[in-house]
Amino acid sequence: MEKTASKLLNSTLVSVAIKQSFIKLNPLVMIKNPVMFTVEIGTLIMAVVTAYSLTNSSEGSFGYNLSVFIVLFLTLLFANFAEAIAEARGKAQADSLRKTREETPALLLIEDGSTK
Fold first, then answer.
1. 106 or 30: which carries more pLDDT confidence?
2. pLDDT single digits (tens) 57-107
3. In this structure, are residues 84 and 21 in contact, taking their beta carbons and an 8 Å threshold?
4. Transmembrane segments in this chain: where (predicted)?
């Protein structure tokens, strides 16, 4: 079981997924997923509120606002990372199936039992 898990999460796959998780933060990409787009808007609002709370304490404490911002941002990154891992696995599986189809020989069975 460990061998399969290591194949699914190799360093190349993880590094590509981490890069993709930041690329997917683009609002033009994120709008395709309305729930995560809403979380992204909330994260941006919390970033503004957190910056504002540095100078004015009427919007709550800076520590609380910062912790909410960090949790929302990490939620976005983790969701994007999970999606990127799933996409990479799907592409790898499709490539593997395509390669198997190209490498598998096909023989024609003739009525007398011989193959061609």
1. 30
2. 777 889 999 999 999 999 999 999 999 998 888 887 888 888 887 777 777
3. yes
4. 34-55, 61-82
Return the structure tokens found at 31: 């709008």
- Listed in order, strand segments (DSSP E) in 2-55 are none
Q: Which residues of 67-90 are buried (b: 16+ CB within 10 A; e: fewer)?
A: ebbeebbeebeebbbebbbeebee
Domain spans of the chain? 10-103
Mapped onto helix, strand or coil, the DSSP state of residue 112 is coil
Q: How far apart are the first and last CA of the chain?
A: 40
Yes or no: say if 84 and 16 are a contact pair by the CB < 8 Å rule: yes
